[in-house]
Amino acid sequence: MRQQGTSPKKKLPVIIFIFEEGIFSFIANKEIVQEIRTAYDNAEHAFISPKSVQIEVMAMAKEQYVIQSVSRASAIIEALSNYNALGVTELGKLLGLHKSTVYGLVSTLEHEGYVCQNPQTGKYALTLKMFEIGGRVFGKLDLRKISRPHIEQLVLRHRETAHLVIPDGLEIVYIDKVECTQSMRICSNVGKRMPFHCTGVGKVLLAHMPVEQADAILMKKGMDAFTDNTITDYNLLQQELGKIKVLGYALDNEEAELGLRCVAAPIRDINGKVIAATSVSGPKVRMDDEKIKAIVKDLLIMNREISANLGY
Q1: What does the DSSP 8-state code read for residue 86?
Q2: Domain map of the chain by residue range?
Q3: CATH code at 68-136
Q4: Strand residue runs (E) in 130-229
Q5: How far apart are the first and last CA of the chain?
Q6: Which stretches of 155-214 are assigned E, i.e. beta strand?
Q7: Mean pLDDT, consecutive 10-residue segments, the chain of 312 residues?
C-alpha cells in the first residue's frame, strides 16, 4: 500500500544511443519512443546534426531519474537559507507542498543534522553542517590549479615573470612560477624561500597579518639587508605596510636584488583571509613606472578573480 504524500514509482528508461550512417538506434520505454523519433525526424528535416538530438534525448532521459523527495529537500534547504527560520506551514506555502510532506522532509533533515527546530517557536533553521561541508570542499581546492590559468594570461599580456607565494613559518615560499619569453629573465625557482620584509609578496602578506603575528616573525627572523634599498628599520617598515593596506598592492624597488623591480597583491580565501600573494617581476630597465601602473591594474583584477574562485 502506498503511503500518503508519495508518488507511484515510474518505470525508468534505459537508452542506448548509436549514431552511425544516419541511423539512430535505441532501446527505451514506450512513453518516450515517439518523442525521440519525432525529434530525430525534425532534426533531419531542419538540417540539424543528429548528435544534437542525441544530447537533447539524453537530457530527456536524465530528467526521468530525478528523485522528487531529494529535489524537495533541496528546495527546503534553499528556502531556509533565505530566512532565519520557518515553520512547516510557512514552508508548505512557500514551496507549494502539503504540510505532511514538508514535515516528513524536515524531520529527515533534522535527523541528519542539516536543520534544527526551535523548541519555543517550533520553526526550523539551517545548522552549520552545510557550512562545514562547503568548507571541506573549498579546502580541497588546489590554489595553484585555480591560479595558474589566470597567471599565464597575465604573463602573456605583460611579458614578465609571475610568481605565486604563500607564507610558511618565518618565511615565504614560492609555490608556482610562470616565466616570460624575454631574453633577460628572472633567476628564481619553485620552492625558493625568502624573508617577508624584503620582497613585494612578503610585504603584502605581512601587511594583512595580525600585528602580533607579523611582529613575532620580524623579531625571530630579523630584518637583514639584501641591498641598499632593503627596509631594515621597524618603524619604516610599519609605514610601508600601512601604505600597502591602503593601496592594495606592494612594490619591491630592488629591495631583494639589485636591478629587479616587482609588484605584488594578495589573494583571499572564503573567509576573506589573505592566504597567498602573486607578483610580477622584471629587470629595472623594463619595469618603469608606466609599466608597473599597467601591471598593477591587471594584477588586482586577476587576484579578485582568483579570490572569487576560492569563495571570497
Answers
A1: B
A2: 68-136, 141-309
A3: 1.10.10.10
A4: 161-168, 171-178, 193-194
A5: 50
A6: 161-168, 171-178, 193-194
A7: 45 41 42 54 46 49 75 93 93 94 94 94 92 69 88 94 93 90 71 93 96 94 95 96 96 94 94 94 92 95 94 86
Q: Per CATH, which fold does 141-309 belong to?
A: Beta-Lactamase (3.30.450)
pLDDT digits (tens, 9 = 90+) for 243-264: 999 999 999 999 999 999 999 9
Residue closest to 209 by CA, chosen among 277, 141, 257: 277
Q: Which among 43, 54, 63 is positioned nearest to 18, based on CA atoms? A: 54
Which residues sit opposite 252 in a β-bridge? 262
The C-alpha cell at 111 is 535527523
Query: Which pLDDT does position 137 carry in this prediction?
Result: 67
Distance in angstroms (rounded) separating the CA atoms of residues 15 and 189: 53
Q: Are strands 23-25 and 161-168 parallel, antiparallel or unpaired?
A: unpaired
pTM given for the model? 0.59
